[in-house]
Amino acid sequence: MAFPKTFYRWRPHPWHGLEAHGGEEGVVNAYIEMTPFDAVKYEVDKTTGYLRVDRPQLTSSMTPTLYGFVPQTYCAARVHALSPSSEKGDGDPLDICVITERPINRGEVILKARVIGGMQMVDNGEADDKIIAVLDNDQFWQDANDIKDISPALIERMRHYFETYKLVPGQPSDVTIPEIYGRDHALKVLGASMEDYTDEYG
After folding, report:
1. Fewer CB atoms inside 10 Å of the end CB: C or N, the chain?
2. At 2, is the secondary structure helix, strand, or coil?
């Protein structure tokens, strides 16, 4: 008996072994590292591909959406060029925040997300954009196609989280968010990160 063509004999690395998208413009695969229920910062281990504990959240603020990254993306020169106040890309996969109406309470899942905008974030001088998307088959958000279709209160909640999630008491923040942008610019950032990935990893 032959294995189906889509079968992986070994678990693929979530950054390098999964596809960024399935060919539909603006719809990407997202690997979720964190949920709004997590009081601990998790992130994928770049060597093994397993989820590891990075640190307990430094403040009482928790991510207001699902949070992870788009596979086979990399933030380097091209992403930096789209972020004028940064000095370079952060050398990580492109981060993504995924909005869904039904709570998803576990990480280390993959899903299809429809890009609607993003945050131009600069962390310690490095371009660290956060793409904003909605769960693609969530009927509650089926008419959300751009950042203007999302409540400003939710956008502000995301902004506050990222401006404070690394904050150390008594020290100034190294994080700024110069701009919130819509779908068109988000797709440019996505395309740039995919090209940066190709440059870095082939």
Report:
1. N
2. coil
